[in-house]
Design goal:
The structure is a single chain. This protein has about 475 residues and is of the alpha/beta class. About 45% of the residues lie in helices and about 15% in strands. Helix 11 runs antiparallel to helix 12. It is globular and about 80 Å long.
Length: about 475
């Protein structure tokens, strides 16, 4: 089985082979911590999580770097209005980002470098670009000269015919219609120093543009050439195009071998959900409306292939919650079932086939929705076999192995609320103490309280065990 990934650069699915055997160097564009992360950004961040988890399933070690953009135009504006420094302004949003990632069960990347802590690396790269004449100073700002980089536009398959040489933009984002030399360094403005947003550089005091941080920090932590660079599809142009131009012009090496882009989340009208369009929906909004973070995780990674748009709706989240519940109940049922004396040979064969087909779906450009379809079909059959008492010891361990395969990507079956296990154990100990003291009313009350929270206690000869039940 070979892992195949759709590379935006070539527009084709390719066999994935990392540069260094067994180790994958992956860089992913992280959040701009000017506010809470939008649910559309979270889709991209969970896509990164799916990539890294499947790389590990495929047997690779993964070195994953995700940046935190803690300086940009919006952060400066907000910090100025709040009368604080940019460092103080972003801190609650950095914290909120990690909280969101934890409640959505995203694995931690190996590094989360912050832009403001890598100004030295950025200044060095800008100096190199000036030396190589790929960049020039204009009135204290430094711009990348697009005309000096003939491959510009290769990633987004941009037609260069309409490019106007010498047109310049200072903002971090610009329209595809007006491709322009972009800012690497912006000279300091009155007030920047007070906001903690001014640094010295050979080309004059100022602050970095947005694009240069990813080129400088990926080089620092992963070297000149990355195996995988991922981001939301909205970053393809200009951000990723600019990263390629900066890195390849400075390093004279191929920057990224495989580019992966995840699609938008759309709103009810099919439009891209975005902050600027007023469709601001955060994880916090959804949780406050009663949605389970694990259902949100399932919805974001398993409802649609990462290269398809997916529509966020309460119905879609309810159906994701239902899928999570079915997976958990099934895994729980298989765990609890005492196997029959003989195995069902047909069930054994089909479970093996489904495990292989699930893996194949993931190896084929991370097609988790296809894999889940196969798994749910099989769960129906396996439930029928359980009803009929036809599940033997081998059947049981195969089915549990299938659930482990699935949970390697989803991580929703065994996931518990943080601290839940410790709290349940504490209550079990309290109940035992109450029973020893012959306070059976109190012991029963603890059992009932736990049942109301979806936890069932079972007294066994090895002591008290607990498991989740559906509400
Ligand atoms: Zn980036």
């Amino acid at each position: 089985m070979t892992l195949r990934l759709h590379n935006t650069l070539t527009g084709a699915k390719e066999d994935f082979v990392p540069l260094e055997e067994g180790n994958v160097r992956m860089y992913t564009c992280g959040p701009t911590v000017w506010n809470y992360a939008h649910i559309g950004n979270l889709r991209a961040f969970l896509f990164y999580d799916l990539v890294r988890r499947h790389l590990r399933v495929a047997g690779y070690r993964v070195t994953h770097v995700m940046n935190l953009t803690d300086i940009d135009d919006r952060i400066l504006d907000q910090a100025m209005h709040a009368g604080t420094t940019i460092a103080e302004y972003v801190e609650p949003y950095v914290k909120a980002f990690f909280e969101d990632m934890t409640s959505l069960r995203a694995e931690r990347a190996e590094q989360y470098p912050r832009a403001t802590e890598h100004i030295k690396e950025m200044v060095e790269m800008i100096s190199t670009l000036i030396e190589h004449q790929n960049a020039y100073i204009a009135d204290g700002d430094v711009y990348f000269r697009i005309a000096s980089f003939p491959r510009y536009g290769a990633l987004s398959h941009l037609d260069r015919a309409g490019l106007k040489a010498g047109a310049r933009v200072a903002t971090d984002k610009y329209d595809k219609e007006s491709v322009s030399d972009f800012a690497l360094w912006k000279k300091s403005q009155p007030g920047d120093a007070r906001l903690g947003a001014e640094w010295d550089a050979p080309f004059g005091p100022g602050r970095p543009g947005w694009h240069i941080e990813c080129s400088a920090m990926s080089k620092r932590y992963l070297g000149d050439t990355l195996d995988i660079h991922a981001g939301g599809v909205d970053l393809t142009f200009p951000h990723h195009e600019n990263e390629i131009a900066q890195s390849e012009a400075a390093n004279h090496k191929l920057f990224t071998r495989v580019w992966l882009h995840s699609e938008f989340l759309s709103d009810a009208t099919g439009e891209k959900m975005s902050k600027s369009a007023g469709g601001f929906t955060t994880l916090r909004d959804l949780v406050a409306a009663g949605h389970d973070p694990l259902a949100i995780r399932y919805f974001l990674i398993a409802n649609a292939h990462y290269r398809s748009r997916v529509r966020l709706s309460p119905e879609a989240l309810h159906s994701a919650a239902e899928q999570v519940r079915r997976l958990r109940e099934f895994a729980d049922r298989v765990h609890r079932t005492a196997p029959s004396s003989t195995d069902d040979a047909e069930l054994a064969r089909r479970t093996t086939d489904v495990r292989a087909a699930y893996r194949e779906a993931l190896d084929d450009d991370l097609n988790l929705p296809l894999g889940m379809g196969l798994v749910f079909d099989h769960i129906r059959d396996a439930n029928a076999a359980l009803d009929a008492g036809r599940v033997g010891p081998l059947n049981r361990s195969n089915l549990l192995a299938l659930m482990e395969d699935v949970d390697a990507h989803l991580d929703v079956i065994h996931a518990e609320e943080p601290g839940l296990a410790a709290e349940v154990e504490r209550l079990i100990a309290e109940r035992e103490a109450a029973r020893k003291a012959k306070d059976f009313a109190r012991a029963d009350r603890i059992r009932e309280d736990l049942r109301a929270r979806g936890i069932a206690l079972e007294d066994s000869k090895d002591g008290v065990r607990w498991r989740r039940i559906s509400a």
